[in-house]
Structures
1.
Amino acid sequence: MALRGYLREGLNAALIMGAGDAIAQLVIEKKPFQDWDIARTARFTTLGLVFVGPALRKWYGTLDTFVSKQQSATRRGLKKMIIDQSCFAPPFTLVLSYVVPCINGEQHGRIVDRIKENYLSIMQRNYMLWPMAQTINFSLMPIQYQVIFAQIVAVFWNCYLSTKLNER
């Protein structure tokens, strides 16, 4: 049963990350359809399947045990958001900032340089979107829908992140 949950979240993340990358290329980067890098979209999609979806499912399940259920939904949601955005978001974003260019064939030294250049601005953008989204998520959504809620918000985040992490 748990394996099906991880697979479901992986598939959801794969579809949403793939959509985010496709939108990033075709709308934000304004590539003509014939120049769409389908392999790049496939790599971003695969990352959602094997890493992002399962990692978020595990994290949200773990996070749910950290905060007492004996308080209001709003207070609980705020506490979970603070833990999420201080303990999970920074290392998760750092891993993605390394893995995406890595699976695109960039060399280690160049990736490290790009992280030094871009990581703080990515995190600044993260904090413009995710604290509010996660407060709503953790306060109002049942745990079984929290990953999919976050992934729906992540369509927009993934457009930005894909564009930023695929800059050459």
2.
Amino acid sequence: MDLLLVALALVPLEWVLFPFSIAFTIGHTAEEVIGDGGPFWCYYRRHFGRGIDDILGVILFSTLAGILILLAIYGYLCGSAFCLGVLIGARFGDAWLSHVCMRNTAPGPNPGLATSLLYLVEVAVVTLSGVPVSPLGFTIAWGAFAAFWVVSFLIRKR
């Protein structure tokens, strides 16, 4: 046990957080695709009257997961504060806007809601740990989610 603590003390915090980030991405994406009420693009279509088909949904969500994994690699392992800011901003935007806020406005199962808590935990741990995060990167990613949901509500079919 003491050897493990010594090893952890010598390993940068970012390297410790990295595997959790990857696991959170995979778990959250899986829940959005096969979770209760899913896939997420069908949930979106039910509440907004438009959306994408299943093939495009799988491609889109696989691509987004890949981008999040690349951001985690560059942010945590390569030390890019900008990439980590984009990752954390995307985590916060996805969890808060796509799941917590949508749960309050759209009744029924929300695929990804349960694992979005993991994203909020990651945001809190990174923020409180002092790991360098670019405010610009955070704002860009969070802003992209905010813009998506604002436009979605403005153009939804009633």
3.
Amino acid sequence: MFFDSTGIISLFLVIAAGATVWDVAKGRHELFDQRLTADDRNRLLRLVIFVLLPLSIVLHEAGHAVAVKAFGGEVVGFGFFLYYGYVEHRGFYTPLDVAIISFAGPIVNVVLGLGAFAIAWFTPRRAAVNYLLFVFCAFELFNALVFYPLFDFGGGIAGDFSSIYSSNTPVFSAVVGIGHVAILAGAAIFWRTPRYRKGYEERTGQRRPRVSGAERWQMADVLAHASTEASTDWKHEIALSGDAQSGGTQMVLRWQSGGFQRALLVHSTHSDDPKQHVELHAAIHPNEDGAPPYQRPLMRVDGQPQLDELTLYIRRSLDFIDTWDGASVISPS
């Protein structure tokens, strides 16, 4: 039945794909100019997920069908639901034939992924096109070389990789395994090189994060500890909020006093920045309707200060902001 759960979700994906294509077509002039915005990246990501990936799955199954024909088999059925497809066939095959027929699907995805990367890298287009190709490459290689094998063996579905890495074809399995590992290792190594970072930035206009998520959260943790220490037992109750981004980490301390909403923003650049520093900014907003807010930088500390030092700077800034009325230009001592 079409209107079972799988059919309903498939219908939803078809609608999502159509909406994505319409959205991209409608905003194509802004999307494919020289500037790639966050909204552009979201559109391109949806285009990959709802349009390009399903098309690549159809091509994956077509690869199986071509291999079946090459070994004298007959395709008797084809299906495509969600992000899953299948080819039903019959024939008389050797174990090696079965392994190659199974291999013909994933290799299509690998070729598509590497081909997308090659186009973006060696014959770059506009920033949006290059970004689209890089994202598509990442999805294709991850799905074909990481997710699908793990899902196959871990989920016990007896899919392509169960046949590719069969004990019935040791030589073929070994050769494919070497290539499998080589592509994964090569991609991981190249992804971390300055050459890739520079090339990616030149082709997309996007600065790739140069520190890991763990490092970003570690920096946020330092700011959080210093902010907590500085605000503990202070004369006002403070609300803390933090954020770890690719461009740096920050903490915002907010409170109310003297008819003002007050805030201290503490921002730290990442450790790989040659001009690493910490900045402290003040902001106050009168509680009266229509009154303008006041903002100003307080201080900049070059390098990465120690926890005790940063705690002292934050405490002094809190004391200053609590007495600032927006008119004074004196900095905290």
